[in-house]
Specification:
5 strands; globular; 6 helices; Rossmann fold
């Protein structure tokens, strides 16, 4: 495998954190650069948390917090001697990941999964599953089994 560019979507969960660790290790071995991607998806549930904010102010607050968290993740990449960048966009997660992989010419996507099953999976679907089916490049899906027990 000769991956030069690895796309790493993150929702800031422990599962995404584990995937980033894995991507960093892989990038070191392959001399690849990383693009860290965070998608802001506005839904009726997330917009219910607006508490008097205007939509513009609410989005600005979410983006500001996401930027801080992405900078911290990018610092981890830099500390390991790797090249990287961050991207924050709004949209439907699986579609943005697939589109970003294509537009950025990613050689590989490394992403975590929550491993939901049953009703939760049926209602929410699986972003990872959709990405695997639609991505223009290989997808490596990680699951932190030591911390995900009982989830």
């Amino acid at each position: 495998m000769t991956a030069q560019h690895i796309l790493v979507p993150t929702d800031f969960s422990e599962y995404a954190d584990y995937a980033l660790d894995y991507a960093i290790e892989l990038a070191q071995k392959l001399q690849a650069r990383l693009t860290l991607l965070h998608i802001i998806q506005l839904t009726p549930m997330t917009m219910g948390d607006m508490y008097g904010y205007s939509l513009e102010a609410y989005l600005e607050a979410i983006e500001s917090e996401a930027q801080k968290r992405m900078e911290a993740l990018l610092n981890r990449v830099y500390q390991e001697g790797l090249e990287g960048e961050t991207v924050i966009v709004q949209g439907v997660p699986f579609q943005i990941i697939v589109d970003m992989a294509e537009s950025q010419n990613a050689d590989l996507i490394v992403m975590g999964t929550h491993g939901r099953t049953g009703l939760t999976h049926a209602l929410m679907g699986s972003v990872a599953e959709k990405v695997v089916r639609l991505a223009p490049c290989p997808v490596l899906v990680t699951r932190d089994t030591k911390n995900a027990a009982g989830v």
